[in-house]
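Quick one, probably user error.
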């Protein structure tokens, strides 16, 4: 695998985010366009988001899986509002 990568700007850098694939929340530390291919003849580039969880450990996910984290899920807020009506 080639050790090639580049940092990519993202609107949620240093903000609290949620990985929709795992449901884990943390702070978005970096977005990197990285060669994830395991062979030398074919390059496969992917934008990976590096998220630091509450434990302090960082994990990666596809940048498409990153959404802003809210105090409560939007569906719970909507249900609470409907009950009070």
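Nope, works fine. Designed sequence:
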């Amino acid at each position: 695998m080639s050790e090639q990568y580049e940092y990519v700007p993202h609107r949620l850098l240093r903000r609290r985010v949620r990985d929709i694939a795992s449901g884990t929340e943390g702070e978005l530390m970096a977005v990197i366009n990285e060669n994830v291919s395991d062979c030398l003849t074919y390059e496969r580039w992917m934008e990976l988001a590096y998220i630091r969880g509450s434990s302090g450990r960082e994990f990666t996910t596809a940048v498409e899986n990153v959404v802003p984290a809210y105090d409560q899920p939007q569906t719970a807020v909507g249900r609470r509002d409907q009950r009070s009506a």
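The mean pLDDT is 85.
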